[in-house]
């Protein structure tokens, strides 16, 4: 025990930079230990798979992750210590950061327990913007307890700072920190290597744990493992899908489906980067001809502005914010599961690789002997290849069948060198370095439209073969895009896709040739979320409420929703009639008008955000 005189002497010492750096390291290591204990609360609302490897990964991940967060906290004090090594100032900064660290984890645990997703910019905006009480329904008593808890955390951090300071001053020259740092780095590295191996080999008892921890971004190196022969995309598809222990509640109720007496064939034709205003008689003559005798949806949206979540929304009928959870657990779309249960023969033909994005471990994970690659060194060659192979599939298939053709040429602005150019002037080669707000988009857009015309010529071959074989009378043909494509249409220097959630990047054509239904043009807003549940109800005899397995409504008879929940790789957006609310990767929230420019004075709607948060969490187990 230190005497009062000794304590007073230690506290009066004027520290050097080295002493303060040691204090910062130990202080945040101690905070990480405290947070690690608090974070065990995550386990009460998440299922940890059984098995020694899964348990070992849990231990390594929890320790390594929170140790790394503590290391970041110490780094934040590094510069202030070098510039102004004043103990009182550094203590104040450290106590503030430590308090925010602990409180942030506690708040995240509360959000995760309620909604099964972690603290993000939308929630922070609600909390700091004064709408928290409307969303979370805090009582006056609860607010009092919150205030007391915050005060207790700050007092604890003050006490901990003083205890760590005494420890540092009484252990000069000791090398404990180097040993602890080495061990913790080893733990952090081991956990990440385990996850990288599990991800490459589809070992779901490990990968499904990644979503439990806040801000956790474990290592993935699937291509490296495949290149070195430590993973095989053709062999791992079913290898480790162990049991059904899950953090998902998808579908929310067991599906009750009775196949009709006559099963219709289903064919999806999806064109990558196909924007809504290029389904015209000139750009797509074959599709346009089919549209005259089909259902045409004139105000249709993808669920995303990118391929990964666009295809996800098309098959799952739920927001792309669930992508990582579905991937981690290798959960396929119930639409595909029902097709297999009803003995559909599946022909999956994608121009791009089906393991990048990982559709082989999500949408099509239940499909045996999945075709993962196409032949050819360019999009046009691969598009021809999938057309030829699908035509062979048609010649040898038995009904019923489900076909999926995913064309890629418009994504690469590609077509054969000798292809007749319908739209001119057409850019001879795409040079992204020239694109800016002053660049004339017309030649670039014409090149894009020529690539769309090329794909339409291949689609024409498919439609002709269906007609010759008499299959158009027994096949529902769905033709759409995975997302749109922008050519600086809003004069904000956006080109391509995955840049924003404006209609130019999210609105796509949708034509459905449906035997037995009269041609119709539908102008109300529809989305990819509506397609799979409508087909499951109408063609596969599924009697469940669509809400059991999708976020969509009936394409033809359903009322339009008040908003669309769109997503991308790290962002999501809420599209309403007159505004779009965007939450980016860093948690920043923008509320934009139809011209994709900020709306002055716009605020988040608590009622809308409550609905969005519920939809983003509805398919997680509770």
Structural class: alpha/beta
Taken together, the total number of domains comes to 2
Global mean pLDDT: 89
What is the name of the CATH architecture of the largest domain? 3-Layer(aba) Sandwich
| Major sheet description | 7 strands, mixed
Q: How many angstroms separate the termini?
A: 48 Å
Rounded Rg? 28 Å
Biggest β-sheet: strands ordered side by side in the sheet = 4-5-1-6-9-2-10
Helix content: 40-55%
Task: Provide the low-confidence segments as ranges.
Answer: 4-13, 238-244
Strand content: 5-15%
By CATH, the superfamily of the largest domain comes out as: Alkaline Phosphatase, subunit A
CATH third-tier fold name of the largest domain: Alkaline Phosphatase, subunit A
Assign an overall shape: elongated
Number of strands: 15
Give the C-level CATH assignment of the largest domain.
Answer: Alpha Beta
Figure out the total of helices. Answer: 20
Summarize the structure.
By secondary structure, the chain is of the alpha/beta class. 45% of the residues lie in helices and 10% in strands.
Can you walk through the features of this model?
- The chain has 622 residues and is α/β, with parallel strands linked by helices.
- The protein folds into two domains: 4-217, no CATH class; 265-557, Alkaline Phosphatase, subunit A (3-Layer(aba) Sandwich), CATH 3.40.720.
- The protein is 45% helix and 10% strand.
- The chain is built from 20 helices and 15 strands.
- It has a seven-stranded mixed β-sheet, with helices on one face.
- A hairpin with a 7-residue loop joins strand 7 and strand 8.
- The protein is elongated and about 90 Å long.
- It starts with a helix and ends in a 5-residue tail after the last helix.
- The model is unreliable at 4-13 and 238-244 (pLDDT under 50).
